[in-house]
């Protein structure tokens, strides 16, 4: 059995910067964007396609080894959850632990994505960021059966990422701080208090 950590959230939220700090030390983290960017830097015109093929190959390798590992995945489209489902189906005993980075301020994502692009990394349009941002919580609820645990990390301007909620499906354990950000208080809190059955 392996624990698979999905470091999730909309583009620009800080998954690559802070994701490694909220999962166990020394785990391999597979990031399809970073893999594609390596091929882009080496001059491949079809770097996205090659990067995705390599990413899928590396995920399968980790699954066959049976090791714990992490994956960066936006979870902003249903296709992302279909991929998570395929990972879960590889071995039903594997756990899917989602670490969701999110914010009340979508402008943080816009600004960080632009800075990242100016530094030579891939471009994500504001339209795509907004779509993924708006999809994140509804899709999480729709696909909640696939998830073994959820750790919610709140992102605000100028502050360090803060873990504000943890939910463990086994035993339906819910731990949270008193003053939750709006994105949790107004939507996800009640869903989790009901055991993820809304």
Would you write up a description of this structure?
The structure is a single chain. This protein is an alpha/beta fold. The protein has a single domain (3-193), classed as Rossmann fold (3-Layer(aba) Sandwich), CATH 3.40.50.300. Helices cover 44% and strands 19% of the residues. A seven-stranded mixed β-sheet has the order 2-3-1-4-5-6-7. Strand 6 and strand 7 form a beta hairpin. Helix 2 packs across helix 3 and helix 5 crosses helix 6. The protein is globular and about 50 Å long.
What would a concise description of this structure say?
With 198 residues, the protein is an alpha/beta fold. It is built from seven helices and seven strands. A seven-stranded mixed β-sheet has the order 2-3-1-4-5-6-7.
Main β-sheet, in a few words? Answer: 7 strands, mixed
Q: For the record, what is the CATH homologous superfamily label?
A: P-loop containing nucleotide triphosphate hydrolases
Content-based structural category: alpha/beta
Quickly count the helices. 7
Give the overall average pLDDT. Answer: 87
Counting DSSP E segments of at least 2 residues, the number of strands comes to 7
The Cα radius of gyration reads 16 Å
Distance between the termini: 29 Å
Gross geometry: globular
Strand order of the largest sheet: 2-3-1-4-5-6-7
Which CATH first-tier class would you pick? Alpha Beta
Key traits:
19% strand; globular; seven-stranded mixed β-sheet; 7 helices; alpha/beta; 44% helix; Rossmann fold; 198 residues
Please outline the helices and strands.
Blueprint (H helix, E strand, L loop, with lengths): L2 E6 L6 H4 L10 E2 L1 H10 L5 H19 L3 E4 L5 H13 L4 E8 L3 H13 L7 H17 L6 E6 L7 E7 L4 E4 L5 H12 L5
Parallel strand pairs: 1-3, 1-4, 2-3, 4-5
Antiparallel strand pairs: 5-6, 6-7
Helix pairs in contact: 2-3, 5-6
